[in-house]
From TrEMBL:
GO terms for biological process: phosphatidylethanolamine biosynthetic process. GO terms for cellular component: cytoplasm. One of its GO terms (molecular function) is ethanolamine kinase activity. PANTHER family: CHOLINE/ETHANOALAMINE KINASE, KINASE, PUTATIVE-RELATED. SUPFAM superfamilies: Protein kinase-like (PK-like). The gene is ycfN. It comes from the Bacteria. Pfam families: Choline_kinase. This is Choline kinase. InterPro entries: Kinase-like_dom_sf.
Length: 472
């Protein structure tokens, strides 16, 4: 299907020498193919966008022995048989090898322009001051400036190769360093150590890279993000989600209870994936390449509880919880649901609503911490997604939600509560935990049934009835 496109883009004498062309990938600016050229297995890259200045890339490629042909953005380069980092378990050894390759790239003596960090706007006053601080000519290096996982390859021998040099510029070395953490989930401590970055420098460069990316997507990419190349994922109750290249794109479906907080406020929360761009209709962040795992694994359980503790001790002020209002709304919506009303009497519904009115607003709470919203990335870090229902709430709400969803036995549940106390320093009151657990499960059942009337809630209902005695 790409034959005509390639033939129209490439000089005839070059096209005639191409064989066995195989489509690999479509990015924002280029198609990438695998092919044979003059009997050599090669990467063929053909531009589809005029957003990039190919003159700069030509200077870089002329320094690489693997380059066979390059003109006007059309690249033929010896094929490197490896995988992109998004498919790799990012061990410390691999992370350090990638960093070493980048540091070698930084030393390349190539005449390229300095990165224009104001190309998408002047930004905030703080941004302008920090850009000035980190733009001293004597500190700049040859920066790749686009180190997403798809632009770093590794083979079976552990050899690293960088690709796609359209955005190479003179920039501070910390620019690439921060991209590794923000776009690829490299270990922050490893990156800071290898690049000799202080805590203050990391914070300041984070401000630069965050605002630069946000402005870029606002101006250039937000309107073209969802197109025929964006693959729709499962449609949730309150969002439609897509993945395109290495981006996760979410179209908001708003109701009275969700998307009340800008997700940017969680940018410094470790279990959260930073938002690149957000407006009233859309959220764009890096797609999290995840690994399969078992919730029965005690190491995973501890990582999840540590992540919950990080959220609950995170310094942010959110709106007060609306759990009582939501339950009232769902109960009214379900007034004709036969099974629901057979399970739960009017007196029990009223008692749960009354109890939900007294939920304390003591910690930042996710409020939808089901198993689908917990991910293990390729760096073995736990990430939470879908924060659109977050609010202040009881410290027990997320814990009860998680333990009920996984249907943990009593011993595992107690172990989890003890871990939570260890990581937060908070005391645990079991009577209050079980009271909240009754509320949480009734809330979860009611919410689910409003979207799926056939939802089988028997396994959650038991958690309501077992804990009724703790309601006040």
């Amino acid at each position: 299907m790409y034959t005509k496109f390639i033939e129209n883009k490439i000089p005839k004498d070059i096209y005639k020498q191409l064989e066995n062309i195989e489509f690999i990938y479509k990015g924002f600016h280029n198609y990438t193919f695998k092919c044979f050229f003059q009997g050599i297995m090669c990467q063929l890259r053909v531009p589809i966008s005029d957003l990039v200045n190919h003159d700069i890339e030509a200077r870089v490629l002329s320094h690489l022995s693997s380059t066979i042909y390059y003109k006007d953005g059309i690249l033929i380069r010896k094929w490197f048989e490896g995988q992109t980092l998004e498919k790799i378990n990012l061990t410390q050894k691999i992370q350090r090898a990638v960093i070493q390759k980048i540091k070698e790239f930084h030393k390349m003596d190539i005449e390229v322009p300095q990165i224009d960090l104001f190309t998408y706007g002047r930004g905030s006053e703080k941004y302008q001051k920090l850009v000035q601080k980190y733009s001293k000519t004597n500190e700049l290096v040859t920066s790749h400036s686009d180190l997403s996982a798809k632009n770093v390859l590794i083979n079976d021998n552990g050899e690293i190769e960088l690709i796609d040099f359209e955005w190479v510029r003179k920039a501070h070395p910390f620019f690439d360093a921060l991209t590794l953490v923000q776009a690829q989930n490299f270990d922050k401590e490893i990156v800071m150590q290898e690049f000799n970055i202080s805590a203050q420098e990391f914070e300041e460069m984070s401000c630069i890279t965050d605002e630069f990316r946000e402005n870029a997507y606002k101006i250039k990419y937000s309107n073209i993000a969802v197109d025929d190349q964006a693959k729709q994922l499962t449609q949730g109750y309150t969002n439609t989600s897509f993945v395109k290249n290495d981006l996760f794109i979410q179209k908001k479906h708003k109701n009275a209870f969700n998307h009340l907080n800008p997700l940017k406020i969680f940018d410094k929360l470790e279990p959260n994936e930073k938002v690149i761009y957000e407006d009233e209709q859309i959220i764009i962040r890096k797609f999290i390449n995840n690994k399969e795992f078992s919730f029965d694994d005690t190491t995973i359980q501890e990582k999840i509880i540590k992540a919950i503790a990080q959220l609950h001790t995170f310094s942010v002020k959110l709106q007060k919880n609306q759990i009582a209002e939501r339950i009232k709304y769902y109960v009214n919506k379900l007034k004709n649901h036969e099974k629901y009303n057979a399970y739960f009497s009017e007196n029990l519904k009223k008692k749960i609503i009354d109890n939900s009115l007294t939920l304390p607003n003591e910690v930042p709470s996710h409020n939808d911490l089901n198993r689908e919203n917990i991910i293990l990335n390729t760096s073995d870090q736990i990430k939470f997604i879908d924060f659109e229902y977050c609010s202040m709430n009881s410290k027990y709400f997320d814990l009860a939600y998680h333990c009920s969803d996984l249907d943990y036995d009593v011993d595992t549940e107690l172990k989890i509560l003890n871990l939570y106390a260890k990581y937060t320093g908070f005391s645990v009151n079991l009577d209050e935990y079980y009271r909240v657990k009754a509320i949480v499960n009734f809330y979860g059942i009611s919410w689910s049934l409003t979207y799926n009337p056939d939802f089988n809630f028997d396994w959650l209902a038991k958690h309501v009835f077992v804990n009724i005695k703790f309601l006040k």
